Amino acid sequence: MRFVYLDHNATTPLHPQVLEAFIACSRDRFGNPSSSHWAGREARCALETAREQVARFCGCDPSELLFTSGGTEADNLAIKGVASASRRRGRHIITTAVEHPAVSASCLSLEQEGYRITRLTVDRLGRLEPAELEAAITPETILISAMWANNETGVIFPVAAIGAIADRNRIPFHCDAVQAARWLPLECRDLGVGLLSLSGHKLRAPRGVGALMVRKGVRLHPILHGGSQERNRRAGTENLPAIVAFGVACELADASREEAAGRVRLLRDRLEAGILARSSGATVNGDPAARLPSTTNISFPGARVDSLLAALDLQGIAASSGAACSSGTLRHSPVLAAMGLSPETAGGAVRFSLGDETTGVEIDYLLEILPAILERLCPGGGPRRG
Ligand SMILES: Cc1ncc(COP(=O)(O)O)c(C=O)c1O
What we know:
Layout: E1 4-5, H1 16-28, H2 38-58, E2 65-68, H3 71-86, E3 92-96, H4 101-112, E4 116-120, H5 130-136, E5 141-145, H6 159-168, E6 173-176, E7 195-199, E8 210-214, H7 229-232, H8 240-278, E9 283-284, E10 295-299, H9 305-314, E11 317-318, E12 324-326, E13 329-331, H10 334-338, H11 343-347, E14 349-353, H12 360-377
Parallel strand pairs: 1-11, 3-4, 3-5, 5-6, 6-7
Antiparallel strand pairs: 2-8, 7-8, 9-10, 10-14, 12-13
Helix pairs in contact: 1-8, 2-8, 3-4, 8-12, 9-12
The structure holds pyridoxal-5'-phosphate (PLP).
């Protein structure tokens, strides 16, 4: 059986050079970067080199970048850290209805503490209307949090327009760029982004490392307490091998972005067209114009996503959904619900996310085995005939 991995929005395989850097650092840079002796100094030097690499990647000064345990911690720190530092100024946060749980659950937890949260809705294609953001701002607003690209649909938000509104109103703008980072240039120096979250494992670095860019002048309280690491903003001994690997992954991602995005887009479009040609009634969810080149989210009418994913898995294909399946019950994706999809359409939605190692042969294999699966699982909406 062939094994085909089409779940790169969940996590990506390590780049061989990234793995090498991880191993070399684990072996040779065992000191604690906070120690003042030679072993500590060597480790500190490796840490600061990685900081420069990641800072270059997202267009900030190295002093504006702090390392975290991943995207989730970066999002929590941005939202709770700004809320805590600004609570005397106001208690209103604006976010969107389609954020990753790392953002939405952080906002929910603040809501339970008495903050007011406005969740901007999106249209049928998952698009945000910047004018609605402008209208939601009040003198109490202390933070705007909106993602760069959606993890379920790949839809890209108008970051520059959001940043301009935030800038004009002097409100810090936090942007979760976790999914955008592999495919879009993140040069955000002039985009009005005050805080930017990154995660290593979405761009071929190890899991368990990420970063938060905090622009000079943005006030942030720490959420972890302990040592004085990361300029007193993130306590805890740094995960140096993963950080060093993250730095290398950012350099590699920058160097190959354009070529990789072009190649992956062609494959994704081939996959999408092939699926639509083979399944009557299948529909693509999300803005066809502003979408990550790697991602397609497709609803198969009459099908249940858990059955589809299990059938694909039996044929060696790893894909996923936005809905969490637990003990046989489906929880529908809040992202697809916010886009106005019916529970039936959302309940049959599969996300295919391609990556650097995806090949045309793999796409053809999926298209070859799909009709038999649809025949079995999509009564009435199965393979297109004739
Ligand atoms: C948009 C987005 N934000 C945040 C995260 C969380 O990142 P991590 O897995 O590094 O905690 C993810 C992970 O899927 C994501 O897709």
